[in-house]
Write a structure and sequence with these properties.
With 432 residues, the chain is of the alpha+beta class. It is built from twelve helices and ten strands. It has two domains: 93 residues, Phosphorylase Kinase, domain 1 (2-Layer Sandwich), CATH 3.30.200.20; 228 residues, Transferase(Phosphotransferase) domain 1 (Transferase(Phosphotransferase), domain 1, Orthogonal Bundle), CATH 1.10.510. The chain has a six-stranded antiparallel beta sheet, covered by helices on one side. The longest helix is centred in the last third of the chain and has 32 residues.
Length: 432
């Protein structure tokens, strides 16, 4: 077996870092600049589209124009024509970017939240601050990610100034559009990853800035509970839940979540795009306030109303018919649809095995479907969730029942007085 590294122009492909349905990522060595880079190689079936290479040049230029410390930098994008003797004459499209040494946010969540070891309040706020700044920057430049998920966020172990676990670096910005993938739940091909797909994308729309914010809200839910809000046996089932199902309240999964934080999470994953936060920074500022932490100075001065419900003018509009469609599952009388047992990872369904030793169920409330942790990530006993944020309790509020009784008595008294007054007026008018 030959040990000669595969080459793309001046790059030696040393190690495959990952692969998916549309591309594979390699750690490569730039033989001219004598440095390591990461290369995303697009799969051959994408090159059957005659318009692909034109679109590749245009979209790759836009992606490479993003310059932000929390977005991976694209250095080059090329179409390589291998020689006939290498076994294929088909051209290869690829992008060259910074090589980031470190785990992904998905790895971090599996090793912490999935084991009941929820990150501290300050760790969560600092992490989301960096991610939010990157998302807002890209949105201001007219770039929408459309596939924000923990696997697309690298934690740079060489930069721990703001985040001891590694500074988050977003990858694959704009790649979903570059690939020209459309949502097709019948064929099983979807734009984005089912666990983090917004309701509008699940319905077949390309998504806009608010869709990215929804995905960020799903990540927050997963980080503080240890499970994603929607799970199912198939991608189609998960997408349907994003559209129709009401997620389990985070406080029912992790009782240590402050009610203020739960409100931020639920607004972040609102079905209606107009009901979500106006920006990623606004969401993170609300997150900090919900945890009684100062809003990070990096987010800038507060420039958002706390109860903002209108979408800013810079938001990319969805097709007109979307705004007139009523999304199921948003009314007050919706019955929550609990996900079936197991966890959809986006690549493989792992069925529940209650009899397998070592599997633990962190949810003990009656009526809830057991949650099975991913293989290799299961604790031997249900771990207690640590408190999130300050433990100071909020002042007790009066019971809703007492409040309603008080209002009922007042209403009855007013009704009696009005009856007497109106009766007297009527009798007086009869005498006249």
């Amino acid at each position: 077996m030959s040990t000669t590294p595969m080459r793309l122009d001046k790059y030696e492909l040393r190690e495959q870092l990952g692969h998916g349905g549309v591309a594979e990522v390699w750690k490569a060595f730039d033989t001219q600049l004598q440095r390591f880079v990461a290369i995303k190689v697009l799969h051959p079936n994408l090159r059957e589209d005659p318009t692909f290479f034109t679109r590749f040049q245009l979209e790759a230029q836009l992606i490479a124009s993003l310059h932000h410390p929390n977005i991976v930098q694209i250095h080059d994008f090329r179409v390589y024509q291998p020689v006939e003797t290498e076994g294929s004459s088909a051209p290869i499209a690829y992008m060259v970017m910074d090589y980031v040494e470190g785990q992904t946010l998905a790895d971090y969540i599996r090793n912490t939240s999935y084991k009941g070891q929820i990150p501290t309040a300050s760790e969560i706020v600092n992490l989301f601050t960096s991610i939010s700044l990157a998302i807002d920057y890209a949105h201001q430049k007219g770039m929408i990610h459309r596939d924000i998920k923990p696997a697309n966020i690298l934690l740079d172990r060489g930069n721990t100034a703001q985040n001891p676990i590694g500074e988050p670096i977003l990858t694959d910005f704009g790649v979903a559009k570059l690939m020209g993938i459309s949502t097709n739940t019948q064929s099983g091909t979807q734009l984005g990853t089912p666990l983090y797909t917004s309701p509008e994308q699940a319905r077949g729309y390309p998504g806009n800035e608010q869709s990215d914010l929804y995905s960020l809200g799903v990540i927050l839910y997963e980080m503080v509970t240890g499970v994603p809000p929607f799970r199912g046996e198939t991608a189609v089932e998960v997408l349907a839940q994003h559209i129709n199902a009401t997620p389990t309240a985070p406080t029912l999964i992790n009782p240590n979540i402050p009610p203020t934080l739960a409100l931020v999470i639920m607004r972040g994953i609102a079905k209606d795009p107009a009901s979500r936060f106006s920006s990623a920074s606004a969401m993170t500022a609300a997150l900090a306030e919900a945890l009684n932490l100062p809003v990070p100075e990096r987010l800038g001065p507060p420039g958002y109303p706390p109860d903002m419900q209108e979408m800013p003018t810079h938001i990319t509009p969805l097709p007109p018919r979307f705004s007139s469609m009523r999304l199921a599952g948003t009314g007050p009388n919706v019955t929550p649809i609990l996900p079936r047992e197991g966890l959809w990872s986006g690549a493989q369904w792992t069925p529940a095995q209650p009899s397998q030793p070592g599997l633990a169920n962190p949810i003990s409330q009656p009526g809830f479907t057991p949650v099975v942790m991913p293989p290799g990530m299961t604790p031997t006993a249900p771990p207690p969730f640590p408190p999130i944020g300050p433990t100071a309790s909020l002042p007790p509020s009066p019971s809703r029942t007492v409040k309603w009784q008080q209002w009922l008595y007042i209403a009855l008294a007013v009704s009696a007085i009005l009856t007497l007054v109106l009766g007297g007026i009527y009798q007086h008018s009869q005498k006249l």
